[in-house]
Specification:
This protein is of the alpha/beta class. It is 35% helix and 28% strand. The protein folds into two domains: 240 residues, 3-Layer(aba) Sandwich (Rossmann fold), CATH 3.40.50.300; 63 residues, Alpha-Beta Plaits, CATH 3.30.70. α5 runs antiparallel to α6. The radius of gyration is 24 Å and the shape is globular. The chain starts with a strand and ends with a helix. This is ATP-binding cassette domain-containing protein.
């Protein structure tokens, strides 16, 4: 459904010195600086896959999605969506895809929700009978019945995002790109969105490419992840295999009755203070056993509670970024 080969994109920005003198110099003799947003990215996604596209801020995630959807043209490389080149078949491709950027809206803020949906259906030439059937299902899945007559501008963030999801599915896209879809949402709305994504994938075979800084989105939805760092591919494979590779890194959480007055010190251990009463210990299973770590901590400080933590994808990704590991 999505095929990208050797994508690269470079931006050029004016490298301006600080102050009035720098502004005048930049105006008459601008010095441009090249920023390689994406470098030789290749990605192939089959129908029905849900793929997590992970990267830190500025790593090139949004630029990649814009090239995949035809919003931006790649400097190098090729893109096809369901066998079609987006820049050459813009209208046809647009009717097959759905795109949601967490900070941008598809809906007219001055219109009620119902009328915004009608307008969206008209834009995508959705037949009236099909529109009514899909709308009824989406209202039920996303719990929109009580807000259909309200203006978009009067909705809460959670209500608006649920409406955004309904809007992009009115034309039943086969491929959906989600860029930070749950940003700023509370836990209950996030779970509603995740359940909706799973439903559309299982019921209609919808293909998803999801970028998110919320690793719960990735862990609960994606079996495969693609990690990008500084515009370059770092990892492309299953989430379970990545966890298995890093399974030697263990974490134990401790809580104390009294405020911490010192850090825990031992070779091969990483002390991670959460607050004055809680901290984590990260360690290599090849060097330490859980019993040894707990005993060592008990010898240094009075502990109130201990919890063994499962390996989290967030910890793995953080280590990849910090240490420059290529998985």
């Amino acid at each position: 459904m999505i095929e990208a080969q050797h994508l690269s994109k470079t931006y050029y920005v004016v490298d301006k010195e600080v102050g009035l003198k720098g502004s005048i110099k930049a105006f008459f003799k601008p010095k441009k600086k090249a920023i390689q947003a994406v470098q030789d990215i290749s990605l192939s996604i089959q129908q029905g896959e849900i793929v997590g596209y992970i990267g830190s801020n500025g790593s090139g995630k949004s630029t990649t999605i814009k090239m995949l959807t035809g919003v931006l043209h790649a400097d190098e490389g090729t893109v096809t969506i369901n066998g079609l080149v987006p820049k050459d078949n813009r209208k046809t491709v647009n009717k097959q895809i759905g795109v949601l950027f967490g900070q941008k809206s598809h809906l007219d803020w001055n219109l009620p929700v119902q009328e915004s949906f009608i307008l969206h259906a008209k834009i995508y030439d959705v037949p009236e009978a099909v529109f009514q059937e899909r709308l009824a299902r989406l209202i039920d899945l996303l719990d929109l019945a009580d807000i259909m007559k309200q203006s978009i501008r009067n909705l809460s963030l959670g209500q608006r995002v649920r409406c955004e999801f309904a809007a992009i599915f009115l034309h039943q896209p086969s491929v959906v790109f989600l860029d930070e879809p749950t940003i700023g949402l509370d836990a209950s709305v996030k779970e509603t969105i995740r359940a909706f994504i799973r439903y559309m994938n299982e019921e209609h075979g919808t293909t998803f490419l999801i970028t998110s800084h919320d690793m719960k989105d990735i862990e609960t939805l994606c079996e495969r992840i693609f990690i990008i760092d500084k515009g370059k591919k770092v990892y492309d494979g299953s989430l379970s295999q990545l966890k298995e590779r890093f399974s030697q890194i263990k974490t134990i959480s401790f809580s104390t009755e009294h405020p911490l007055t010192k850090d825990i010190e031992a070779a091969g251990l990483e002390f991670d203070r959460k607050d004055d009463y809680h901290f984590d210990i990260h360690y290599q299973a090849s060097q330490w056993t859980s019993a040894q770590v707990i005993t060592m901590v008990f010898e240094q400080i009075e502990v109130d509670d201990v919890t063994m933590k499962e390996l989290e994808i967030e910890s793995i990704v953080r280590q990849i970024y910090e240490e420059g590991i290529h998985a």
